[in-house]
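Fig. S4 source data, part A: sequence.
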Amino acid sequence: MAVFLVVLVAQYAALSYALQRDHALMRDIVEENESSRRTIDALSDEIAALSYRIIGVSGGIYAAQSIAYKLPERGKRIIAGWTQVHQRLSDFSDEETKQQAAEAVARLPAFLEETRQLFEKTGPVPTPDELLLLERNHDEWLDYRTALIRFTEVVRERVAENSAKNFVELQEIQSKLSVWSATAFASGLVALGVTWYLLVFLIARPVTGLVASMRRIATGDTSTDVPNLGRANEVGDMARAVQVFKEKSIENQRLQAEESRRSGELAAARDEAQAANRAKSEFLANMSHELRTPLNAILGFSEMMKREILGPVSPPKYRDYVDDIHHMGSHLLSLVNDILEMSKVEAGESQLQESEFSVRETVEESIRTVTAAYRDRSSSVVLDRQSTLPRLFADRRMFTQMVLNLMSNAVKYTPESGRIRVNGVLAENGTFRLSVSDTGIGMSDQEINEAFEPFRRVDHALTSNFEGIGLGLPLTKAMIEMHGGKLEVASVSNRGTTATLVFPAERVRRPAEQRRERA
């Protein structure tokens, strides 16, 4: 195998060199011929163009005055063409021809200036004297033209000779390349025969057996035997690797069976949980709908009795009962509404009814509502005078409910004579943060986590007299997340709690005035 590789590398190197040299010469010849031809042809064309005009004036074809102004430009082109040919192809001309052409180019500007002045003086129909001058001028031009034409012809001829020489070298290389190719082919045949023998009898047959064993193992037949395990060469290494593959396959089959069993158990448990969750949501939604109708009737009738629309309520003690009925019915309707709202949120059926509104007006209305609802409590709810309250683009009903939930929780968990403070801040990143802080009992980290779970309440003596089913914080968290925001709760036991609604910057419309709006 090593001999075969050495032969192949040597052949590749030789052929690569030959091909590279062949291609390089071909490219150089073609490029040199094309470039030289264009350069020489450009100079010859400019000389011919000027010669046609000078001869044409002398022969009466062109009017001298129409040619005069073009002579300097023609001269510049000839000089530029000569310079290019001289710089690139001067080695292809003999010294005498090159010197004559250089002298002609050096005297050409002065000659063309004299010619221009002569043409400008010559009328449309030259006089005999003017014709004589034109003929002399033409004879002088022939001297310049002859020197330049001879130079271009010599250069063109020698460039062609050089190209022919290169083609001869190319043909020699191609002949050598043919010999090398034949040698490489013969060597390749010999190397191929040796390699075929090595591959078939020493590698292919053992490897074929290993591949067959691996294929059976891969299809699940782990009982098959692995051959050639005892060899002390590469084939033996491959056999031992296949044996490891077999052992891993057996282990994988065991793990897959175990994983399949566990996946089935998890899928069944997931389906049961999803079914239970759907049943719970459907039950809560149906129960809430069923309860709202009789509750609305109870509230309506109790309201009529409180106002004594159909006549006085007698005896007077019944008025207290009616007040209790109306109060408890209102509380029960509030709980039913919370349950129905939570069910909609969990089912993904709740949608935002967005509009632009004033945060200040909504917060102040919420403070008045909470104060009236808990008028028997001495705890006060105040709006911080340093608050920055903008206008928001959000669902005003949900915003009001979120604020009322946070304020109600603060009142419930704050002892008598406590203080609940509401504060609004516009952060540097444009977000709006509305915080409700209290000086109440506070919560531990575990109690905070429990408070975010639906139907869970933090047990405390302060809250034993207040109704509630533990939906305030979970519902508030779900509503703020529907607005793209978040609810943050920071609390310290026996020191108080701060709950903050964070609204994204895209919902903030414009900040309200901070102090001038408050009298």
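Fig. S4 source data, part B ends here. The chain is about 70% helix and 10% strand.
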